[in-house]
Design brief:
The protein is mainly α. 76% of the residues lie in helices and 0% in strands.
């Protein structure tokens, strides 16, 4: 519900522009931050991956059902999307949760890893969608300038998200006390405008 509201209130910007990349990047960072913070606090990236997988599965299942797809098709689609997200996110999340190292190096590595992960993940999901459509092949789809632009955009947004998350990780890892780590992470998100509870309605519509 909250994520749907954030998407609905997102600024109307033209794809391929800097405001578009920033808007999408901030939204994606806010979605990833809880899983990253949990992985660092538990010292287990698999916990964060499980959160990501659950989130993607639920979101994609709801989307598929809203499009009128039957339950078994919606479940299959959600499973593929979640599995793709988890498998491709494993390396970037490992970089983000690694202890020590220079902050600039982590920023560059995380940005590069997420910049590669996003288009790969998008291509896998695209291949699945095309596989369900007998009217077009993957090779034909990749010739479409719009499809290539979407993959390029996902790489730019991924790099933006990776560097943002590396900055958040640095804050969380700056204190060994779990409570302090979580507090710093939330403070960082609020200060950068990436997470604002005051502007997110609860599922009941109250604030």
């Amino acid at each position: 519900e909250a994520l749907n509201e954030l998407r609905a209130n997102a600024p109307d910007v033209r794809p391929g522009t800097l405001p578009y990349y920033v808007s999408k990047g901030i939204g994606a960072t806010a979605q990833m931050a809880p899983a990253l913070a949990t992985s660092i606090l538990t010292r287990n990236p698999n916990v964060g991956l499980a959160m990501i997988g659950t989130q993607v599965f639920g979101g994609q299942y709801a989307s598929a059902r809203s499009e009128g797809k039957p339950v078994h098709e919606a479940q299959a689609e959600a499973f593929v999307y979640a599995l793709s997200e988890v498998l491709t996110e494993k390396i970037p999340l490992g970089i983000l949760t690694a202890q020590g190292g220079k902050r600039l190096t982590k920023l560059l590595k995380a940005g590069g890893a997420e910049g590669l992960q996003e288009p790969i993940n998008a291509a896998i999901q695209m291949a699945y969608d095309i596989g369900m459509d007998e009217t077009v092949t993957l090779a034909e789809a990749l010739k479409d300038p719009k499809v290539r632009q979407e993959l390029f955009d996902s790489a730019i947004i991924g790099a933006f998200v990776g560097t943002n998350l590396a900055a958040v990780a640095g804050v969380v890892q700056g204190d060994t006390t779990p409570a302090a780590q979580l507090g710093r992470a939330l403070d960082e998100l609020v200060e950068t405008g990436e997470f604002n509870l005051m502007n997110v309605e609860s599922p009941t519509g109250s604030r």
